[in-house]
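Thread amino acids onto this structure.
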């Protein structure tokens, strides 16, 4: 088995500890993980957090009502929670591969929460991007000819 544990979903249910245990028992290339995938897995949360926060900042600048402020605040918390759970998954999986401590349930928990938050953040990102695009491309009233 190669690659990060969360990139090989072969079933529709959420990640469970047996899936994580199978990765370790099934000849998972841990040295390849530490040399190639872990550095990428550590950079990815930073990149998507910056991307999500950038579009949210555009959304915040163009908000049109008080409720949008609450949406922006909640969305920011979701983005940071997703990043935190991604790092918790990365670190617990790394520790699990190198130690005799049984952490498969914890890795599976962090992977599930991280995946849920990432998908939720993608939906929020898409909605914010569409809204910001409409605001950006909306004709300005002072440029309209009567």
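Threaded sequence (146 positions):
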């Amino acid at each position: 088995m190669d690659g990060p544990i969360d990139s090989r979903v072969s079933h529709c249910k959420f990640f469970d500890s047996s899936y994580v245990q199978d990765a370790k028992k099934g000849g998972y290339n841990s040295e390849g993980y530490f040399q190639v995938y872990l550095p990428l897995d550590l950079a990815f949360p930073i990149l998507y957090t910056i991307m999500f926060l950038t579009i949210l900042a555009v959304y915040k600048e163009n908000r049109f009502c008080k409720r949008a402020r609450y949406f922006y605040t909640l969305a920011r918390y979701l983005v940071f929670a997703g990043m935190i759970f991604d790092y918790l998954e990365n670190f617990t999986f790394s520790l699990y591969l190198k130690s005799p401590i049984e952490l498969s349930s914890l890795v599976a928990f962090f992977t599930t929460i991280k995946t849920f938050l990432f998908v939720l953040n993608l939906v929020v990102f898409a909605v914010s991007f569409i809204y910001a695009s409409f605001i950006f491309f909306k004709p300005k009233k002072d440029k309209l000819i009567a």
